[in-house]
Recover the amino acids of this structure.
């Protein structure tokens, strides 16, 4: 059974005047445990929209989304929130760290919404994760005082701190220079393998996409497989 | 359990981050809670001191007052009035009262008589109102002595009568107990055993003696001296008041032919179950504090609502990492509650600190010379704390509602 199973997923957005925007028009996708998938597409093609659906942040207009074989549409809001926290770790393009919190506090945020045992161990778990991404010297630094590359490392540590089975990265290198971006992708691949998590990376950077085992392309609201270009 | 701790921890972190902003908006709450606590405390204090003053004027609950008057003689002048009773009559009345007190085993009681007599002061002869009362009277009417002692049982056996004077009378006979061991009063020599000082009301001379000592005074039997026949005051348990009233009345009516007896509950608490002389004062104080608090809460809501709009992204991020709507709601509300409870706690601490200041103590004890204030009323502090938490919850529910309405995808889209 795949971790995630999407069939005929559509998503449209209502506009104030005029017809609804058809962004996704029938997406079929299976993500297996330990899978490596990259999704490319030009800007505005609906990549983030799809990622939000994969991460249980958004619901499709029509179509089926199943997590571990369970239809997500049948779950209550609280259940979805809990499942999202326990299963998915997000890495965003704009890092999305919480201003005012230190690196360690940011990494510990997901632990506030999980099991009690991990909550009480949050300081230790957070510094272990920061150590893992090479930031043990930045534990008590305010998120806003970190460089872009460092912020994305903190974000990766945060995504991994609850040992998710699925890591969703939305243009994780989009706000970084090529060299830093390359190192961030190395790190992301590495920690995902270590953690035994599936990794879905969204990007418009073909070099980034080429790292994945499977590369998909969003064209006109649908996914199509792409020939693997030799890296 | 963990959820609760984690939520409070989140709230605290948030307050710590926005220290400056939160501090500003909470100053109003601190001031309001300080005002509220102070007004409740003043109400409590006024209640306890006023209670004492009410009880010293009308007796404790339940005080039974037995009054008597002579029946109209047939053929007598109906307009002449009863006039003052003779000494013999008064003694007979006191005997009957003593017998009744003994028979019904009344624990606290006092015969009360009033007389106007002359005494020899340092600057000449002067008049003074003397109350004939018994030792229990001090307890029944909060009559505490500032110096020496009140009348005691063994005073009954003295040859020279004992007298307790107030500050005004002490000033007239020499100014101190050492200077005025005895006083010429009503044609007898009395030993001064104690001084009463209740502040303002003891400026004018007044004195207390045992009822029989008073009656035995050579110059106290003139028609101008006595105002009324002796009466009896008995302080009894409230549940025995009704029976006691009936029995005393029956007993004394039987014992004193030719006299009419009227027994009533005379303490102020008998005026009505829901009579509360302090209610208007307290309502005014609490009302004032409520207005300040309302203004403080409005300020708090305004600041919170503005800052919540800047934090929509943060809530989106937290939701992405597993926070439910309910959790966000509680977190935002708790920020407000933790803030107002801390602010209110500071306000209460300021009140308690101010209450300890000598200046304030002096201000509060005005007119109650020598009276020590009780400790800061707990009820006021607890009220202040509960109200702070309630205001925090109410004020916090508005930004909390706004916070849970924002959608995750909108919040983290850019
Ligand atoms: N919540 C929304 N409401 C209205 N339109 C939206 C919303 N989210 C996305 N869109 C629109 O859908 C399209 C795809 O957006 P997005 O998935 O973010 O693209 P990508 O990530 O591929 O650049 C864009 O035209 C965007 O304006
Ligand atoms: Mg996007």
């Amino acid at each position: 059974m795949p971790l995630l199973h999407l069939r005929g997923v559509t998503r449209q957005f209502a506009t104030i005047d005029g017809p609804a925007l058809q962004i996704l028009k029938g997406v079929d996708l299976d993500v297996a445990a330990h899978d490596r998938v990259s999704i490319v597409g030009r800007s505005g093609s609906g990549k983030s929209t799809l990622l939000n659906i994969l991460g249980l942040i958004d619901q499709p207009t029509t179509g089926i989304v199943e997590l571990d074989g369970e239809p997500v549409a049948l779950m209550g809001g609280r259940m979805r929130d809990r499942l999202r926290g326990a299963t998915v770790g997000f890495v965003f393009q704009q890092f999305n760290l919480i201003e005012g919190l230190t690196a360690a506090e940011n990494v510990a945020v997901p632990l506030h919404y999980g099991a009690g045992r991990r909550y009480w161990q949050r300081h230790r778990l957070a510094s272990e994760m920061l150590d893992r991404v090479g930031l043990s010297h930045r534990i008590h630094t305010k998120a806003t005082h970190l460089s872009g590359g460092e912020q994305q490392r903190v974000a990766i540590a945060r995504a991994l701190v609850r040992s998710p089975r699925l890591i969703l990265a939305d243009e994780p290198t989009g706000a970084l220079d090529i060299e830093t971006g390359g190192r961030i992708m190395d790190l992301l691949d590495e920690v995902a393998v270590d953690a035994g998590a599936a990794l879905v990376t969204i990007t418009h950077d073909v070099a980034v996409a080429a790292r994945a085992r499977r590369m998909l392309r969003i064209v006109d609201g649908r996914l199509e497989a792409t020939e693997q270009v030799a890296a | 359990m963990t959820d609760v701790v984690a939520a409070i921890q989140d709230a605290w972190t948030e307050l710590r981050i926005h220290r400056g902003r939160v501090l500003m908006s909470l100053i109003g709450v601190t001031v309001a809670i300080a005002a509220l606590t102070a007004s409740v405390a003043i109400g409590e204090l006024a209640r306890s001191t006023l209670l004492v003053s009410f009880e010293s004027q009308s007796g404790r609950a339940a005080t039974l007052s037995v009054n008597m008057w002579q029946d109209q003689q047939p053929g007598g002048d109906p307009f002449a009035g009863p006039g003052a009773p003779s000494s013999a009559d008064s003694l007979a009345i006191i005997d009957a009262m003593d017998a009744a007190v003994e028979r019904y085993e009344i624990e606290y009681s006092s015969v009360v008589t009033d007389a106007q007599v002359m005494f020899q002061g340092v600057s000449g002869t002067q008049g003074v109102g003397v109350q004939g009362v018994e030792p229990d009277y001090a307890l029944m009417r909060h009559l505490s002595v500032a110096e020496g002692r009140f009348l005691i049982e063994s005073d009954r056996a003295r040859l020279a009568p004992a007298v307790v004077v107030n500050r005004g009378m002490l000033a007239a006979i020499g100014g101190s107990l050492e200077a005025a061991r005895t006083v010429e009063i009503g044609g007898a020599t009395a030993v001064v055993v104690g001084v009463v000082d209740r502040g303002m009301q003891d400026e004018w001379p007044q004195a207390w003696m045992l009822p029989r000592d008073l009656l035995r005074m050579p110059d106290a039997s003139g028609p101008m001296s006595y105002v009324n026949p002796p009466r009896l005051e008995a302080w009894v348990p409230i549940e025995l008041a009704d029976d006691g009233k009936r029995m005393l009345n029956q007993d004394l009516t039987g014992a004193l032919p030719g006299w009419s007896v009227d027994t009533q509950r005379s303490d102020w608490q008998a005026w009505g179950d829901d009579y509360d002389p302090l209610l208007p004062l307290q309502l005014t104080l609490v009302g004032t504090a409520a207005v300040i608090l309302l203004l403080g809460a409005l300020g708090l809501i305004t600041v919170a609502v503005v800052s919540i709009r800047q934090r929509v992204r943060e809530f989106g991020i937290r939701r992405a990492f597993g926070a439910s709507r309910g959790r966000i709601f509680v977190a935002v509300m708790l920020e407000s509650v933790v803030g107002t409870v801390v602010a209110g706690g500071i306000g209460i601490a300021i009140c308690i600190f101010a209450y300890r200041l000598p200046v304030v103590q002096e201000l509060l004890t005005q007119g109650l010379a020598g009276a020590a204030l009780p400790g800061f009323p707990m009820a006021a502090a607890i009220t202040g704390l509960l109200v702070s938490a309630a205001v925090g919850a109410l004020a916090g529910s508005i930004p909390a509602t706004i916070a849970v309405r924002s959608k995750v995808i909108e919040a983290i889209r850019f």
